[in-house]
Prior knowledge:
Helix content: 55-70%
Oligomer: single chain
Amino acid sequence: MNKPVSNPTQPYRGLIAGYTEAIRASDLKANIGFLFVMFMMLPVLYNYTRFPSYLPISIVLLPFLIVYLCLFIVLLPRYPKRGAKNFLVSRNLTPADFENVVETEDSIEQLKLRCAVLSDILWWKTQFLRAGLLLSIVCVFVTLFLLYYVWLT
C-alpha cells in the first residue's frame, strides 16, 4: 500500500507546513496566556494594601512578571543565522533581490535545513510556553491563597 513518492521534496514540504502551523499555534497560546495572566494579576493589585506587611508587592508580582517575560520571549520573532542566505530580512529589499529565488528550485538540502531551523524555533517556543504556563498555574494557586488571606482578615 506504500506507493513511492513522485516528488522527493514533498515530505519535507509537509514538515515545513506542519512546523509553521505549530509555531503560529504557539504564538496564539502565548497571546491567550497574556490575557489570562493579566486577569489573574488584577485582583492581586486591587487588594495589595491588605496583604501582610512582611510581603511586599514586588515579591507578589515577581512570578507574574516572569510569566510575562516567558510569554514575551515566545512571541519574539527569530531570524536564525543558519539558512539566512535563503531567508532575506531587510528594510530596503526590492523585487530584484528575489529574482533568483523564483528561478531556483528548492533542493532537498535546503528543505532539510529549513526543517531543522523551524524545528529549533518550535522547540524553544515550546519550552518557554511550557515554563510560562506552568508558572501561571502556580500563580493561580498563590492568588487564591492571597485572596483567601485577605478575605479572612
